């Protein structure tokens, strides 16, 4: 879904423009600044309503793309638009039923994991991360014959996503006692992982997949204007929270050695810019080993 954020001429308010029938409600916590647009979209998944928070900073009018929160109701809004366009009279409710056997597929839309991972791993879009986590949870639950809590309820829940996550890394031989996951995006302050666990996970993923192609390199995504001289030599993921900052990834050193690293700094009071510079200095030290 697309929306546009328009700053008033006096630069004292932001108008959120939604041109689609399928709409979200927003808690606008953005700060208007002069030269830095850094917007995060956060949804509280304990609330089933289409309510999201806009956090961060904005310096100019901005267009945003937001993942669909509920495909069923998006479909209804599209269907209502089509009924109106072609003057089809319908005023009753819409009912959801199981697809009948023998139904003919007219069309389908899909996206590769490479496509959907871009906003997550390169631009730290927490909402996209949570959506993907729950979509994967639905597939995992179906394959493992996990039943919904009640008839008609989705299997794409955070709970099933956590079961999937633990199953995957337990089979990989990682120590699951040193990590705690309560959501799919890392927004919750109750998530916890040690740098060693993160390194072990990266080593495993690098052996099993081409994980680097999903990650950002220097001067790209959330590493924009950072580690430019290591472009195509480092592949990493940033992490930022109030009082916490992290950088984990893979790198080829100046001497040609392949290394994994994880830097996690917490309970800090210094400006985040200074902390990011500190992380970059540590990366530089690793690179020159």
What does this structure look like?
The chain is α+β, with helices and mostly antiparallel strands and 289 residues long. The protein folds into three domains: 2-65, no CATH class; 111-187, no CATH class; 194-289, DD-peptidase/beta-lactamase superfamily (Beta-lactamase). 30% of the residues lie in helices and 23% in strands. The chain contains six helices and eleven strands. The protein has helices at residues 71-85, 113-122, 126-143, 158-171, 195-208, 272-287, and strands at residues 2-7, 14-17, 25-32, 38-43, 51-58, 62-65, 179-180, 192-193, 234-241, 244-252, 258-266. The strands form four sheets. It has a three-stranded antiparallel β-sheet with strand order 2-1-6, with no helix packed on it. Strand 9 and strand 10 form a beta hairpin. Helix 2 crosses helix 3 and helix 3 (126-143) crosses helix 4 (158-171). The longest helix has 18 residues, at 126-143. The model has no long low-confidence stretch (mean pLDDT 88).
Produce a short descriptive summary.
By secondary structure, this protein is α+β, with helices and mostly antiparallel strands. The chain has helices spanning 71-85, 113-122, 126-143, 158-171, 195-208, 272-287; strands at 2-7, 14-17, 25-32, 38-43, 51-58, 62-65, 179-180, 192-193, 234-241, 244-252, 258-266.
């Amino acid at each position: 879904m697309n929306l546009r954020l328009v700053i008033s001429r006096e630069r004292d308010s932001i108008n959120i423009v939604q041109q689609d029938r399928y709409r979200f409600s927003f808690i606008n916590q953005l700060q208007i600044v002069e030269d830095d647009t850094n917007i995060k979209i956060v949804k509280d998944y304990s609330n089933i309503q289409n309510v999201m928070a806009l956090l961060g900073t904005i310096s100019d009018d901005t267009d945003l793309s937001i993942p669909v929160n509920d495909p069923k109701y998006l479909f209804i809004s599209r269907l209502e638009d089509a009924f109106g366009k072609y003057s089809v009279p319908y005023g009753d409710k819409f009912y959801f039923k199981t697809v009948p056997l023998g139904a003919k597929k007219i069309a389908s839309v899909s996206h590769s994991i490479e496509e959907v991972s871009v906003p997550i791993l390169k631009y730290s879009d927490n909402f996209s991360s949570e959506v993907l986590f729950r979509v994967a949870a639905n597939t995992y639950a179906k394959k493992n014959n996990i039943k919904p809590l009640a008839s008609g309820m989705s299997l794409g829940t955070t709970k099933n996503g956590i079961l999937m996550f633990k199953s995957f890394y337990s089979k990989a031989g990682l120590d699951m006692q040193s990590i705690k996951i309560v959501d799919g995006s890392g927004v919750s302050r109750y998530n916890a992982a040690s740098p060693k666990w993160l390194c072990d996970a990266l080593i495993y993923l690098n052996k099993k997949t081409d994980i680097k192609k999903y990650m950002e390199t220097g001067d790209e995504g959330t590493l924009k204007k950072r580690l430019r001289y290591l472009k195509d030599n480092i592949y990493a993921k940033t992490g930022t929270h109030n009082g916490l900052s992290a950088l984990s990834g893979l790198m080829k050193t100046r001497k040609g050695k392949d290394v994994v690293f994880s830097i996690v700094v917490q309970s800090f009071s210094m400006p985040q810019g200074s902390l990011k510079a500190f992380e970059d200095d540590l990366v530089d030290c690793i690179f020159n080993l």
